[in-house]
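Why do we care about 3D structure at all? Because function follows from shape, and shape follows, mostly, from sequence. That is the central idea of this module. The next example makes it concrete: a single protein chain, its amino acid sequence, and then its structure expressed as tokens.
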Amino acid sequence: MTINLLKHFQEKLENRPWLENCLEGKVESFPYSLDEAAVPELSKPFFPTDPMTQVVTPRKNGAPLFVANIPFGQAPTKVQDYTKYSQILEQFKKEAFGKTPEQSRREILKSLSLALGINRVKSIDPAFNRAFQRYIRNLPKINAISARAFGFFLEPKWTYKKYNRLTYPKNKAFLLLKEASGTVKIPFQKIREAIKNSGSTRDFVKSFEESAPKSPIYYTIMDDDSISLRGSQTKEGVFSRLKTLIEATHLPSIISPGYRLKNDELPLVRFAVQIDAAVRATMPMPYFPEPCTAFKIKGPNEPNYLGKLSFIGKGTALESRRFIESGRNVLTDGAVFVADGAVVTTTPARMITEKSKKFATLTPAQTKTKPCLQSLRSRVIQSHAFPKQWADILYAGLNFSTPKVTDATCRMMNIFSVFDPISRMFASEGRFSADTFDSAMQNYTNPLTQTQKDILASAKAHLMQLKMKEEMVDLVIETAKKSGAAIYLELTKLVSD
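And the structure:
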């Protein structure tokens, strides 16, 4: 083997400065960085050695059946820890149906199949990657539930900080130092799409089609951080709750019983989620939450149309919205959101802000302060009670478009402000105080003032100039009226406790 000594010495000379800097602790000198703006690609899937699972035998040919998908993300590690994986499966067995673990264990084998997509960011360190592949190969055998799991990598893009043809390739540079860091943009849409299109999901759907052709099939998206599947006021498992709601609402195309946070969470954050859910329930097409939304992908005696639906669209997140947008021609039997909090989830980090931490309790006096009211409808909580969020989400659900979206949403925000009690408070003259809150609440049910009527008339005229049909404008106004009433009711209950 011939070695080009000149090139070898040139490379050593070129790479020596950053190597020495890194050895001295100046890791920012590492010549590569993660492209944090790039969306990672997904690797080909890999599977456990023993993928066998029980097959569901439908309880009744005609009752709703469920195929659930859960993305399960992992941090890089060499430890073969199956605790969380086992917890997810056990939670489904014990809490998905009925009011007791025994009821759930019986029913889950007759009505539900679950596909888990376990994913991890691909490391420069091959040892971590081999450990993850080994983790998937050795997944414990699944029993007492119809479920399958598979793994795949998120493959980030690495870039030169400063290109030089003599710089060592990134894998060699890493192995010399075992040093690299960065943040990866998680491709939420791609992850859910991969699980949806997996052989596991397709096989489960096909099995239900063949064994129970009269049954509707609901494709259900969930997250891996559920604390409880029995958050519903009825204390029954989320899929029992879904069954009841589906049958009561005549097989809607989209349905969600909502989610809530655990009881010991910050009271302001918990109440903000409660207001958000109350407003969602008033909207014809709210943003349906990923923690638990079911989509009808097959009606009785119909073929399934899961293949016509996709999570892929603008951006990397908002998976539920993109899925609904792709199904405008097939998800045509209405949408139902019930503010039932059927799934209890962990609290997203974005919701825990310095403002929310200031409210360790939430008394009526604290509620009547401006900082509290601002936090209650903060956009970080994805709150439908935030005026812009409300308008954007309602606009996305309408069969209407205009070249400049804000021409429509700004007018819709004006309509919302007429009926939203918090917007009324903020629009009041003078310094904000508890009296401002009390006055707005006491006068809420009074007839609209002339100023409010003028705002509605102006907004309606502008929307109709944008070619929005009058009946659609009236729907916007009616939705704003219901949304405002929902916020008023929640605030009333809070300050009355």
